[in-house]
Amino acid sequence: MLVERPKSAENIGPIKIYYPQRIIKLGSKSPTLSALNFPKESLDHILKDFSIIIPIKNEDIRLFDSAIRSIPSDCHIIVVSNSNKEKCEKEMRLIEDFHDMTGDPIIFAHQRDPSIGSALEDIGYTSILDNGLVRDGKGEGLIIGLLITKCLKRKYVGFVDADNYMPTSIYEYVLDFAIGIAMSQTPYSMVRLLWKYKPKAVGDKLHLEKWGRVSRITNKYLNLLLSSLFGYETSIIMTGNAGEHAMTMELAERLSYASGYSFEPYQLIHMLESADDLDLKEDVEIFQIETLSPHMHENKGEEHIKDMILTSLSTIYHSRLSNKKLQEKIIKELKEKNILKDDKPPKNTIISPIKDINAKGFINSVKRESDIFMELR
Ligand SMILES: Nc1nc2c(ncn2[C@@H]2O[C@H](COP(=O)(O)OP(=O)(O)O)[C@@H](O)[C@H]2O)c(=O)[nH]1
Ligand SMILES: [Mg+2]
After folding, report:
1. Minimal-distance CA residue to ligand 1 atom 27
2. Which pLDDT score is estimated for 191?
3. Which residue minimizes the CA distance to atom 12 of ligand 1?
4. Which residue among 114, 119, 285, 326 is least packed, with the fewest CB closer than 10 Å?
5. pLDDT digits (tens, 9 = 90+) for 347-367
6. What is the helix (H) or strand (E) element at residue 201, kind and residue range?
7. Which of the following CATH numbers is that of domain 2-376: 2.102.10.10, 3.90.550.10, 1.10.620.20, 3.40.50.1370?
8. Ligand 2 midpoint to CA 231 (Å)
9. How far is the CA of 40 from the centre of ligand 2 (A)?
């Protein structure tokens, strides 16, 4: 694969954020003046250390089926569901068939499984719980996936959504994750994907849009925040809501997380705010990679978009790096879009790092108690 060489980056304390780099070509022979070359074989040793987490809540089972089949075989797949009983049963059957057909290792967990809730309660990891169960929310599901990855002792973790209408593009996404890891010079790296296009139906045509309605706004305010810190204008952040992203576990274990859909924007805010408290021995590198494949996923409707904008901007509004002028702009934006009910956005719930958790003990306890948890090797 050919990927544009890193052009430039911004340094904020120990955090280095690179400007986006395009995937130039999937198959390739040699590097060029403008591009680095990563043949698939050169990425295989990284893929062997990857777990890929797929969060799923009541998605079309056919899309999910194709999604799990599009993940490179070396990766360990972890599905974390929050689906209703009927869909959950379908997902479990499909995973068994997938394992029978491919032999690929796969784990299935349901985030509302009472055995998961009680195992977390027992070890005192309660910031993710509500009444003894893991809360609803995508971020909460991803953290269960992180705990499973920690138990598997995989070095890298990647996240891909289940509602992808072009599921084979997931194969590219995972290779893009591996390229980011291969470029990295530090144990603490993150790779966030940026779409070449997000096709939208306009009348009877597909329109190749570049930005989603939420990411356009989240990126704008993240860049305003950075601009105020730097004292010059920047538009470096193009992946504020990147659901498809990856990290080294060395980094992932140290981070605190925000619940629900604020998981991704909060990662950036949290690293900028708290880099000095993360016990880092080297700098953090954040790569933004523009995929070659377009991205097309389920349309979840107006309320979903509004909720995502609110929770994303809330992470910026409540950041201690924010200032009054920026907060006023956020309020104005939310009011204009009819999203704000109170006088300010509600604070996101923050979930503690998983670094000191005995993940093996946690999973063993879930395996003993649960009749839903599945580990197929
Ligand atoms: N485990 C889990 N997955 C969720 C939850 N909410 C959404 N998801 C999944 O997370 C992925 C992204 O969610 P989606 O609603 O498509 O949001 P968007 O793509 O960011 O607009 C999809 O695969 C969803 O099925 C949840 O509460 N728990
Ligand atoms: Mg989606």
Report:
1. 137
2. 98
3. 161
4. 114
5. 999 999 999 999 999 999 999
6. strand 198-202
7. 3.90.550.10
8. 35
9. 28
Exposure string for 192-230, b = 16+ CB within 10 A, e = fewer? bbbbbbbbeeeeeeeeeeeebebbebbbbbbbbbbeeee
Our measurement of the distance from residue 376's CA atom to the centroid of its chain's CA atoms, rounded to an integer in Å, reads 24
- Is the entire prediction scored with pTM above 0.90? yes
For the stretch 189-203, pLDDT in tens is: 999 999 999 998 889
Does residue 138 line the site of ligand 1, with CB under 6 A?
yes
Strands 15-18 and 50-56, sheet pairing: unpaired
What is residue 194's three-state secondary structure?
strand
300 lines ligand 1 (CB under 6 A): yes
Cβ neighbours for 372, distance < 8 A, ≥ 6 positions apart: 88, 92, 108, 109, 110, 113, 115
Measured CA to CA, the distance from residue 16 to residue 164 in angstroms comes to 30
Intra-chain end-to-end CA distance of the chain, in Å: 30
Residue type for position 164: N
Question: From ligand 2's centre to the CA of 176, what distance in Å?
Answer: 19
Cα–Cα separations (whole angstroms), residue 120 to 114, 358, 362, 368: 10, 10, 7, 14
H helices of the chain, in order, are 40-47, 61-69, 85-102, 114-122, 138-152, 169-183, 213-230, 249-252, 263-274, 302-317, 324-336, 359-369
Nearest to 290 by CA among 23, 57, 24: 23
**Distance from C-alpha of 46 to C-alpha of 52, rounded to nearest angstrom:** 12
